[in-house]
Amino acid sequence: MDFNKLKQKILKADNKTIQDLTVIFIIGLIILIGASIFFKPKPTNKSSDKQMVETQITNEDYASKLESELKEILSKIHGAGNVDVLVTLDSDEEVVAAMDTVQSETTTNEKDSNGGTRTTIQSETDNKIVTSQNTSGENQPMILKKVMPEVRGVVVVADGAKDPNVQYELMTAVETALGIPAYKVKVVSSK
């Protein structure tokens, strides 16, 4: 349709036609604004959307630290004598980084010429690791927590472990200190 013809037609129209067109234009504008408010994608940032993103190998350091702390405390048990401790670990240390998650959902309702309707729901999720700058200006992931490796087992060798009471005290001390069950702890006497 030619724009000039439409312009002349509107100018020739009476006030009633202009008022009708103005009302239709305002109703259309209200529908567009309402649709943009109700169907706008809503960003979310849930703290529960954490994911494991990095694994660091620090088993030897962690096991050595546990061994030295256990050796120190177990050697203080009455009758234990010299104590050596071996700690084995099941897994590596895991680091949990903060994730920024944006979820959006768009719903489209369509009607065909036969009166049938179709609803289409489209959803998207975008995950990004939250980073922060360190003092040298490099971006690093923001760490939420570190999960220490699980203890596989502990062997305690002590001079006084021949005595069943000392052996029991050493075993329960290790169980309590590490929060592990008795079957993961072995206490034996030294030569």
Number of strands: 10
Look at the structure and name the CATH superfamily of the largest domain. ANL, C-terminal domain
Number of helices: 4
Q: Mind telling me the C-alpha Rg?
A: 36 Å
Strand order of the largest sheet: 1-3-8
Low-confidence stretches at least 5 residues in length (pLDDT < 50)?
45-56
Terminal Cα span = 105 Å
Q: Which overall shape is indicated by the principal axes computed on the Cα atoms?
A: rod-shaped
Which topology of the largest domain does CATH recognise? GMP Synthetase, Chain A, domain 3
Mean pLDDT over the residues: 83
CATH class of the largest domain: Alpha Beta
CATH architecture of the largest domain: 2-Layer Sandwich
Biased composition (Polar residues): 114-136
Protein name: Stage III sporulation protein AG
Keywords: Membrane, Transmembrane, Transmembrane helix
InterPro entries: Spore_III_AG (IPR014195)
What does this structure look like?
- The chain has helices at 3-12, 15-38, 59-74, 164-178; strands spanning 51-56, 83-89, 93-97, 99-111, 117-129, 131-133, 139-141, 143-147, 151-158, 185-189.
- The chain has 191 residues and is of the alpha+beta class.
- It has three domains: 3-38; 59-93 and 148-189, 2-Layer Sandwich (GMP Synthetase, Chain A, domain 3); 96-144, no CATH class.
- The radius of gyration is 36 Å and the shape is rod-shaped.
- The termini are far apart.
- Residues 104-136 are annotated as: Disordered.
